[in-house]
Write a structure and sequence with these properties.
With 278 residues, this protein is an alpha+beta fold. It contains 8 helices and 10 strands. The chain has helices spanning 69-81, 103-118, 125-135, 139-144, 178-183, 209-215, 217-226, 248-256, and strands at 8-23, 29-49, 54-56, 86-92, 148-151, 156-159, 166-170, 233-234, 241-245, 264-270. Strands 1, 2, 3, 4, 5, 6, 7, 8, 9 and 10 form a 10-stranded mixed sheet that branches. Helix 6 (209-215) packs across helix 7 (217-226).
Length: 278
């Protein structure tokens, strides 16, 4: 099958912990986190165009096409390589906007990976990561393609291997704008940094969680419900929350017990992005 006809996966990520350890002079926050992929996400199909335009066939509500991250990713790749081809991008969107699961960043990274192959632009992963970082701090991890302890603004990685696990992810019916959380005067920005080698599963917390719960009570309500099953945490800047299970059956039993006014899904953790070998 031609790569132009295939669906390119754009998986979700969760942050197993997320500490804000400082702030750069330019205002960017210095983070430490562990990213893990899930076997759940969006898919992207790329359709060639002969007119040289880059367009989205699936515009997002309230998002101007020129600011859509897939369009921006394709445009950035073309500008970096001198490519002239056009493309229509079809996104099957399953991940929520403002959910902290990396949906837009994952879509952008998959667009870079797919078009780098389809347009035969020949960039290596490090070059794609540099392009991705200009699009958003979470884009590089999806290009990197492996579960990792991340530092800096989220772009320096130390690969780690984790034991198999299943996650119940809850999706509150709110979209949390990341800039709003990072602007908050209540955000702690001085959590002590650790060495990557010292991280262990279960360590830490999410520094953004307190701010998100205060601004968006629905996030707190979902976390409170999840905590009956264990150490529930918010992913990224929210709003999605998760708790880990050793067995799929236990995760699905918890999902079945979800109140009627909450929604969620179960997904397995994955240490490698499905496109990591491309």
């Amino acid at each position: 099958m031609s790569d132009w006809l295939r669906d390119w996966p754009a998986p979700a990520k969760i942050n197993l912990f997320l500490h804000v350890v400082g702030r750069r002079a330019d205002g960017y926050h210095l983070l430490q986190t562990v990213f893990r992929f899930l076997d759940f996400g969006d898919t992207i199909r790329c359709e060639p165009r002969s007119d040289g335009r880059i367009v989205t066939a699936t515009p997002l509500p309230g998002v101007p096409p020129e600011t859509d991250l897939t369009v921006r990713a394709a445009t950035a790749l073309r500008e970096a390589t001198g490519a002239t081809a056009g493309v229509t991008l079809h996104v099957d969107k399953r991940l929520p906007m403002g959910g902290g699961l990396g949906g837009g960043s994952s879509d952008a990274a998959t667009t870079l990976i797919a078009l780098n192959r389809l347009w035969q632009t020949g960039l290596d992963p490090a070059e794609l990561q540099r392009i991705g970082l200009a699009l958003g701090a979470d884009v590089p991890i999806f290009v990197h393609g492996h579960t990792a302890f991340a530092e800096g603004v989220g772009e320096r990685f130390t690969d780690i291997e984790l034991t198999p696990a299943w996650y119940l992810i809850l999706v509150p019916d709110v979209a949390v704008p990341t800039p709003e959380i990072f602007r908050s005067a209540q955000l702690r920005r001085d959590t002590p940094a650790i060495a990557a080698a010292d991280w262990r599963p279960g360590f830490g917390h999410n520094d953004l969680e307190t701010v998100a719960c205060k601004l968006y009570p629905e996030v707190k309500r979902h976390l409170d419900w999840l905590r009956r099953y264990g150490d529930a945490r918010m992913s990224g800047s929210g709003a999605c929350c998760f708790v880990e299970f050793d067995q799929e059956s236990a995760a699905r039993a918890a999902l079945a017990a979800l109140p009627a006014d909450m929604r969620g899904f179960v997904a397995a953790g994955r240490d490698r992005h499905p496109l990591s070998m491309i």
